[in-house]
Amino acid sequence: MTSSASKVGESGLVKTVEIEGRGRALVASQSLRGGQIILTDSPILLYSAHPLSSSSNAYCSNCFRHLQTCSTLVSCSSCPCLFCSPDCLTHALSSSHSPWACLTLSLLRASPSLSLSHSERQVQARFLVAAYNLAIVSPSHFHILLSLQGMALPSSDSDAPTFLHSLLSSLSPPQGVAGFSVELTTALLAKDKLNAFGLMEPPALAPGGERSVRAYGIYPKASFFNHDCLPNACRFDYVDTASHHNTDITIRLIHDVPEGSEICLSYFPVNETYADRQKRLLEDYGFTCYCDRCRVEANWKDDDEQEEEQDDEGQVMDEDQDEQMIGSENEIEIGDGGGENDFPHAYFFLRYMCTRENCWGTLAPLPPSDSDASPSNLMECNVCGNSKKSDEDFNSDEDRLSVDD
Ligand SMILES: C[S@@+](CC[C@H](N)C(=O)[O-])C[C@H]1O[C@@H](n2cnc3c(N)ncnc32)[C@H](O)[C@@H]1O
């Protein structure tokens, strides 16, 4: 580890260091307590996760607050975008919804070739508009975006940059953006893929089902967190409940972390199998994970070697579920060996996984009253927002915490 340490976050609780094979990383500058907020970060760029062809107008086009909760809706005078308040619209007109962004989104919406494209490509088009708009309205933030990790990965959709770049060039090239080229477009798409955080839809909009993403954001300081399949920190956001800076995210520690230890997030829900995690990390993030959990699970029986049996209806059934640690009822399944050595991280799942059906969120203690206080025994889920005492089942829906930071 080389420590060219620059301190970031709340009062310098974490610092960036360079770790061989992992790039930049954030480590604890001092010993830290579970529940401590180590970083609050604001996005330099946000964009909708909905395809351009979608008629959904459920969220403010600037701050992505759910519009159902807003009484002062206004629309853009030149396009169908809605905003939660006149102030948000005014702010957007000089930032995220500049005249160039407004015109370009309208032209893209009307483009037959883009409307025939799959939804992922339409969302990538939204990102590129947001990124090139950033170059126009805030060159310093655009440089921060360029400084983030991200090279095109061999597995990435290689047609996307060429197609989207030629579309933008023909419809509405961003005037005055130095270096506007297919190479820059390729690099921007790669940076988005490696660094974007998803702001989720509120749980009530997806009853019983999985929550989907409403918007993506680039959070420059939080982008330095590396991944671990058993993270020691997790991310919270309060898009609909915070009255100011509602798109800020906070990173909170799940448990105590000693000075000098790396602080990691999980880039996706922790219930995924070893094979799925490795595939996703390699294809989407370009690395193989050798975290403690992966080192243990690498010795478990391979998915492909598992016996598969045909059930009576001829469906393929997985009999051996030792890879699928968290079943549909959030059960812990232990591997063939059955012992603690096979599954030393069972404790993590029992203590820090949300038990609400289909949530798969992570629990972190509420922030301690001061840095010397013991961690709170009230745990909050970073996905559904429910709370529970550390040794209890979840409270009812009425116990959902409302936090306004
Ligand atoms: C969001 S960035 C994290 C910060 C990054 N290390 C940097 O230097 O900017 C994601 C990238 O960091 C690297 N990374 C993250 N977690 C890693 C891990 N557990 N092992 C190796 N590389 C990792 C991968 O290159 C990944 O694509």
UniProtKB/TrEMBL annotation:
Pfam families per the UniProt record, alphabetical: SET
Entry-linked SMART domains: SET
Domain SET: 12-268
Family annotation (PROSITE patterns): SET
UniProt-listed CDD domains: SET_SMYD (cd20071)
Compositional bias ranges of the Acidic residues kind: 302-323
Annotated segments matching region Disordered: 301-323
Descriptive protein name: SET domain-containing protein
Organism of origin: Vitis vinifera
